[in-house]
């Protein structure tokens, strides 16, 4: 299996990217194609004495996408970038998957226009893995779509269900919708419509989830728009960093705390591994017609290696085929046609009453 890696993407490219690729080919049965400026890539590879014997090839790409560049500008002006060249290899069947730690917006744009979308999918979604009290959950969308329609949130739920079932091994994944309250009537118009669509689908929909439930593990799949998901992700990263720094100060305060750390060190390392994003490597972009992994911009070599392994897993387990089947089974099920469900929800009498219910709830909350 050949996996394309964007050697020019990321804050520590190309060094960390190439080191991670070398680690991957040495640890598992995979071939790597590194896209980018061939001179820089080969100079970096020359640091590894045995690289010529490794299943690594260099594919030249003359353009480099910087992390700050606008996706729309990149899409028009850098059609020979390491991202586009890599995705073309996947599109043409010369590689099985693509991994990049580069500009997320650019990867999203190029992947959508190059690989196209799976049938029945309106927009792709970034799916991130979150540690919980009960194992792991998947949250999507984590930033690909700032604004979403109810039908797109419905599709995210189906894609997340497929991922949790075939990648996390959940027989019947619990799917929840992130909202401002557990009641059916809570949320905005989009989430309330999405609630009914998911409720009438074949997935095991457990209803709305409040933010406090995200890390409790009550749902295997958490559905939200990309704006909400990305804010939740960044807040979580900031909180984890704050906790980590404070623990360092506590454990290094005096000899008693240092002794305490020594005693709990094995358990602490285990917990750290559970919450370390480099262990999963990257987030799959679900919904495009090909396997695409988006890694963190500051990815370490270990993170890049694990992103490659995750890409390999998605290919081997035929993730896109399962998503395609799940989307089709919902659209073609014996229940009401999808368009009729949307029509019924959109034109249901008393919709204004439900909308006003939010403000009424808010007023009641104020009095409590």
User: N-to-C terminal Cα separation, in Å?
Assistant: 60 Å
> What is the second-level CATH architecture of the largest domain?
3-Layer(aba) Sandwich
Most strands sheet: 11 strands, mixed
E-strand count: 11
Structural class: alpha/beta
Q: Please, what is the average pLDDT?
A: 87
Radius of gyration: 22 Å
CATH topology of the largest domain: Isopropylmalate Dehydrogenase
Strand order of the largest sheet: 3-2-1-4-11-10-5-6-9-7-8
| Helix content percent band | 40-55%
Secondary-structure element series:
EHEHEHHEHEEHEHEEHHEEHHHH
Shape assignment = globular
Report the portion of residues in β strands: 15-25%
CATH superfamily of the largest domain, please? Answer: Isopropylmalate Dehydrogenase
Q: State the domain count.
A: 2
By CATH reckoning, the class of the largest domain would read Alpha Beta
Question: Runs with pLDDT <50, length 5+?
Answer: 334-339, 349-368
The number of distinct helices, counting runs of at least 4 residues, comes to: 13
GO cellular component, one term: cytoplasm
GO biological process, one term: fatty acid biosynthetic process
Subunit structure: Homodimer. Probably interacts with PlsY.
Subcellular location: Cytoplasm
């Amino acid at each position: 299996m050949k996996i394309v890696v964007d050697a020019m993407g990321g804050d520590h490219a190309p060094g960390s990217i190439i080191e991670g690729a070398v680690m991957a080919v040495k640890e598992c049965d995979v071939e790597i194609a590194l896209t980018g400026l061939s001179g820089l890539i080969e100079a970096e590879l020359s640091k590894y004495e045995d690289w010529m014997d490794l299943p690594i090839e260099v594919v030249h790409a003359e353009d480099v996408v910087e992390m700050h560049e606008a996706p729309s500008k990149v899409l028009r002006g850098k059609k020979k970038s390491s991202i586009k060249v890599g995705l073309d290899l996947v599109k043409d069947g010369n590689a099985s998957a693509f991994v990049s730690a580069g500009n997320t917006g650019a990867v999203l744009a190029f992947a959508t226009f190059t690989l196209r979308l799976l049938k029945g999918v309106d927009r792709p979604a970034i799916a991130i893995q979150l540690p919980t009290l009960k194992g792991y959950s998947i949250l999507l969308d984590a930033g690909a779509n700032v604004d979403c329609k109810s039908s797109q949130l419905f599709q995210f739920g189906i894609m997340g269900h497929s991922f949790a079932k075939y990648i996390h091994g959940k027989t019947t994944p619990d799917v929840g919708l992130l909202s401002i309250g557990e009641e059916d009537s809570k949320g905005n118009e989009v989430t309330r419509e999405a609630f009914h669509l998911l409720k009438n689908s074949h997935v095991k929909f457990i209803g709305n989830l409040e933010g406090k439930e995200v890390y409790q593990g009550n749902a295997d799949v958490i559905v939200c728009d990309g704006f909400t998901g990305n804010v939740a992700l960044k807040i979580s990263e900031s909180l984890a960093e704050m906790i980590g720094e404070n623990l360092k100060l506590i454990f290094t305060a005096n000899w008693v705390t240092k002794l305490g750390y020594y005693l709990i060190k094995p358990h602490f390392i285990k917990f750290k591994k559970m919450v370390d994003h480099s262990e999963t490597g990257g987030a799959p972009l679900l919904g495009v017609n090909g396997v695409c992994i988006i890694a963190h911009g500051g990815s370490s070599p270990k993170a890049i290696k694990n992103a490659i392994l995750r890409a390999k897993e998605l290919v081997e387990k035929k993730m896109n085929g399962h998503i395609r089947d799940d989307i089709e089974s919902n659209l073609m099920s014996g229940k009401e046609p999808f368009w009729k469900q949307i029509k019924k929800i959109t034109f249901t009498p008393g919709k204004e009453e439900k909308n006003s219910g939010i403000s009424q709830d808010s007023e009641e909350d104020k009095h409590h």
